[in-house]
């Protein structure tokens, strides 16, 4: 199988928010596993960003709505004989479990983490130009000197309120990304445009190109159509240019 790289473009605000959260979750998880103080500081930044994000949006409600919507759609597939019923039942059970867990969360996500004094102090100092130095926040310097396992325990405790949201977003996006098969497409002179059936609510566009290609897609999506321009940029200091040759790529219009 040829190695490839995928570019994604959400077509609505809900999926856009989920993709932002997914990146924060991945960032937190990666730096938590590394363990050193430098990585721990980025893991803390991820948690602070999650707190800010969930303060601005009722993301718990949005995740719950999408889980319930997907669950209803998948239940209809149970009547189709060509569907793997065991796999479908597994997905439906995961959805039901997460729906129950999200509904059981009282108040705003991360309320307990919001009250952690060290995180509040880091957030406040983060508004200063430049980085946080040891003289800015001795309590942070002290925390970074604690044993690795102790720091990891603290981070996991602060992240725990977001765990059910992490699992929910992961399942929602995984189902969406695998909802349809790729189609083979060609962008003539680096440009591709396609009309959108208004009866189909496409939520995510995925463009798959061969790894190592010297071009990338810029995707613009509207209510009635979307377009893709394949661009080249050999020198980041200069303005990118649209490809003049025909580009073969794979397109996935995710809808469920």
Number of domains: 2
Helical element count? 9
Could you report the average pLDDT, rounded to the nearest whole number?
Answer: 92
| Contiguous runs where pLDDT drops below 50 for at least 5 residues | none
The run of helices and strands is EHHHHHHHHHEEEEEEE
Level-2 CATH architecture of the largest domain: Orthogonal Bundle
Radius of gyration: 22 Å
Largest sheet: 4 strands, antiparallel
CATH class of the largest domain: Mainly Alpha
Q: Gap between N and C termini, in Å?
A: 27 Å
With strands numbered from the N-terminus, the spatial order across the biggest sheet is 1-4-8-2
Overall shape: it is globular
Q: Could you say which structural class the secondary elements and strand pairing correspond to? A: alpha+beta
Under CATH, the homologous superfamily of the largest domain reads YacF-like
And the CATH topology of the largest domain?
A: YacF-like
- The number of strands is 8
Strand content: 15-25%
Helix content class:
40-55%
């Amino acid at each position: 199988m040829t190695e490839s790289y995928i570019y994604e473009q959400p077509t609505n605000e809900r999926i856009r928010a989920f993709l932002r959260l997914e990146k924060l979750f991945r960032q937190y998880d990666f730096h938590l596993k590394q363990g050193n103080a430098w990585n721990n500081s980025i893991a803390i930044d991820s948690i602070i960003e999650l707190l800010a994000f969930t303060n601005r949006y009722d993301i718990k409600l949005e995740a719950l709505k999408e889980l319930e919507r997907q669950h209803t759609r998948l239940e209809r597939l149970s009547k189709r004989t060509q569907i793997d019923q065991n796999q479908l039942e597994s997905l439906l059970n995961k959805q039901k479990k997460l729906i129950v867990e999200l509904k059981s969360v009282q108040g705003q996500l991360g309320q307990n983490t919001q009250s952690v004094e060290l995180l509040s102090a880091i957030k406040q100092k983060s508004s200063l130009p430049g980085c946080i130095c040891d003289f800015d926040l001795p309590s942070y310097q002290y925390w970074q000197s604690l044993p690795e396992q102790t720091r990891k325990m603290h981070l996991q405790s602060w992240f725990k309120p977001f765990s059910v949201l992490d699992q929910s977003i992961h399942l929602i996006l995984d189902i969406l990304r695998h909802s349809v098969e790729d189609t083979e497409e060609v962008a003539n002179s680096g440009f591709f445009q396609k009309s959108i059936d208004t009866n189909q609510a496409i939520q995510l566009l995925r463009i798959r190109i061969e790894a190592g290609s010297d071009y990338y897609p810029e995707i613009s999506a509207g209510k009635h159509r979307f377009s893709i321009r394949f661009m080249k940029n050999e020198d980041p200091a200069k303005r990118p240019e649209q490809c003049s040759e025909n580009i073969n790529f794979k397109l996935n219009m995710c809808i469920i």
